[in-house]
Records
---
Amino acid sequence: MYALNSEQDALPTFPDAEAFACIKRELGLSLDSIYSSISLSPIAATNLGQVYKAQLRYLGQFVAVKVQRPGIEEANGLDPHLMRGLGLLIYKYDYTISSDVVALIDEFARRVYQELNFYPVGVFGCVF
């Protein structure tokens, strides 16, 4: 097992009020009507969002509530486009590379967008 160093474990969070407003806006319900409790601050933060621990009001089940970092889709949207343009140049002018660079970049972009699509797992993405 690997221990996280302080740099890996110190990703800054975004304001909890924004995260809670995002959940409310996405579900159209107040937090109190969904959860009997929710952590007041995130229990984890990643480059894509942050996670709160909550207990579902009617089922009593404890769940992880992931909230996407504001602006993350826009921040990551331009990179694959620029990389694809670079891949097209490499494909056109560099005859020493036998791999389909554009296809590799397209696959990378597809995976990034899959990671950003929180909805299939019941997570909330918000635009502020």
---
Amino acid sequence: MSNKTSHDSDVSFIQALAELLRQNDLTELQVKRDYGENDSLNVRVSRQTQTLVQASAPAVAAMPAAPAAAAPAAPAASANTDPASHPGAVTSPMVGTVYMAPEPNAAPFVAIGQNVREGDTILIIEAMKTMNHIPAPRAGTIRRILVEDGGAVEFGAPLVIIE
């Protein structure tokens, strides 16, 4: 029971660090907590720069090359607006590592153009060795995937766009 309580407080601690990072416009924060012999917590929270977001966008936009109407609209939208401000953006509820599939070499949870229902798992974020299934907050179609499998994500970062 105390391990669960410790885990919950660690998750709250990491979320507080992410908020501190955002509020103070820091790019990275690293903390080590020692709980006792062979028991510690090392946390490094870092913010992705705008360059990284833009670098991943062309790879995502290149994937739906088949529909002629969708290809020109995606780059224009990403050039003019921040994906986090999009009304269909699903943002990260925590800091962690993104996994697009339930296990290595398995099919991804979602793909661009796929319809999802409210509550469907769209990806997993691993935080503190816990796999957190991230559900679709509403029904719709996956228009953009803004993260890469195995990549780091911060609290509040846009993950996907559902329209």
---
Amino acid sequence: MEIASTPEASLDPLAIAESWKAAGRDVALATVVETWGSAPRPVGSHLVIDADGNFHGSVSGGCVEGAVVAEAVDVIGSGSPRMLEFGVADETAWRVGLSCGGRIKVYVERLA
């Protein structure tokens, strides 16, 4: 798995998505659509993921990125978008590390 670094690291995730698509890579986009409490990224934050699990951007400051990447790879394969929800009231919060509080909803879709 690759984490984007300089000079890509400073680029907007949507620009990265376009460059990856232009290079023939299958790409998914994860977007924060709702937050509550101490979610570390605001609504509209993006994470772009390719079919190999490479990613750029952030939807949670590292709390749930691993889970979102895994789901995004599945979305790329299936073509079916999905809504992901993480929070302290959710049993997955402790598994993915969102124990700081709050709730986050992330919409994941394949980019055509």
